[in-house]
Amino acid sequence: MLTLFSEKPGGSFCDGLSRRSFLRLGGLGLGGLTFPQLLRAEAAQGTGKSQKALILVYLPGGPPHQDMYDLKMDAPSEIRGEFSPIRTKVPGIRICEHLPRLASMADKFAFVRSVVGAKDRHESFQCITGRLNDNVPPGGWPEIGSIISKLEGAGPAVPNYMNLSPKMKHSPYNQGLPSFLGVAHAPFMPMGSVKDDMTLNGMTLERLADRRGLLKAFDGFRRNADASGVMTGVDAFTEQAFDILTSSRLLKALDLSGEDPKLRERYGKGTDQIQGDAAPRLNEQFLLARRLVEAGVRVVTLSYSFWDWHGQNFKIAKDNLPDFDQAITALVQDLHDRGMADDVSVLAWGEFGRSPRINEKGGRDHWPNVSGALLAGGGMKTGQVIGSTDRLGGEAADRPVHFQEIFATLYNNFGINPNTTTVADLTGRPHFLVDGQFQPMKELV
């Protein structure tokens, strides 16, 4: 593992760097895998050529489908709620009044109103793996980013799979779980618990752009480390790992300061305040995700806000929906403007829907029977609604869409056949990417 000494008092080298107090540069949230090990693994397996990518937006807590994309104006008031529908750019499609930007771009989105197959569990597992957290094979089911990493590979300058989520208080919301594909395909998590590891010699991630000072510190470290026997040498993979952090496309992609201020304004700010026991409502994550896939990252996941509204559903929604509306539409429009929409799939959803009946606290409770999803890009046929629910919004009435159908569609967008492609678990047993009865959604392909 590559280490760099930090500037703290105590025993030090001649350039003032501490002998004992040092920071690990190697273990940057890759499930314990160091950057050099990652690069060795990539070199051993080769890399893919496809530039297809996925941005997956996880809405922890379960957003209220009937207050967003599936309003029930003919239902009784205790079910209908406070919001009104508005027309969209696509005739016949109406969505919530608090999503006006989305309405104006409805031709670029597919609204799935009948997602089924969920469990009443507050966890990201199904949204990120497409599997239930039951009867798990040895090593655990891999996340979609890990599978894409394994099958497709990536260039040496960026990780295959990145998760922008912070470490959330409710641990089942968190991602980057171990799987039978191993740590080589776990996500790089620059905004999680590894953020502190991205500080060296007093320099934060933002200050890494000052490469002159950084390289001087690194060169000084190497001289003194070799002289003192702390490190006998730095191999080519370690040097490449260092380059990733200091001069690669990854560092540039993580730096938003060079973006056009007008574009950053289009995405909006949201808030960096933690919402509930989940994530901030931070809009710039969406811009960062676009920059990362543009730099060559194949799968980017992020967690946005907190949607478990057992009380004051409509008051909280009035804060959350406009920010989400701004961020998701800015992302999709940005992908279209850059000619990336056919290559980059976008999915936004939560682990389940909300109950039709509004409770005594003005909230909606857990409802795994049916939920919604928002899809865009990826060369998919957008500008449509898929599926419907009954009059009360409690059950799928027409065209139920299973979670795994959506995953099959995402794999298909990468050019991967989910029904014939397999990955092997720790016992060597092959697993198809989805169960055999699930196919890519015919409405979208």
Model description:
The chain has 445 residues and is an alpha/beta fold. It has one domain: Alkaline Phosphatase, subunit A (3-Layer(aba) Sandwich). It contains twelve helices and 20 strands. Strands 3, 6, 7, 10, 11, 14, 15 and 18 form an eight-stranded mixed sheet that branches.
Give the key terms:
two-stranded antiparallel ribbon, 445 residues, single chain, globular, 8-stranded mixed β-sheet, alpha/beta, Alkaline Phosphatase, subunit A
Brief write-up:
The protein has 445 residues and is of the alpha/beta class. Helices cover 28% and strands 17% of the residues.
Mean pLDDT: 83
Intertermini distance = 45 Å
Low confidence ranges: 1-35, 44-49, 193-203, 205-209, 228-237
Shape: globular
For the report, how would you describe the main beta sheet? 8 strands, mixed
Alpha plus pi helix count: 12
Percent helix among the residues? 25-40%
CATH topology: Alkaline Phosphatase, subunit A
The tally of beta strands, per DSSP, is: 20
**CATH class wording:** Alpha Beta
The fraction of residues assigned to DSSP E strands is 15-25%
Structural class: alpha/beta
- By CATH, the architecture is named 3-Layer(aba) Sandwich
- Round the Cα radius of gyration to an integer and report it: 23 Å
Number of domains: 1
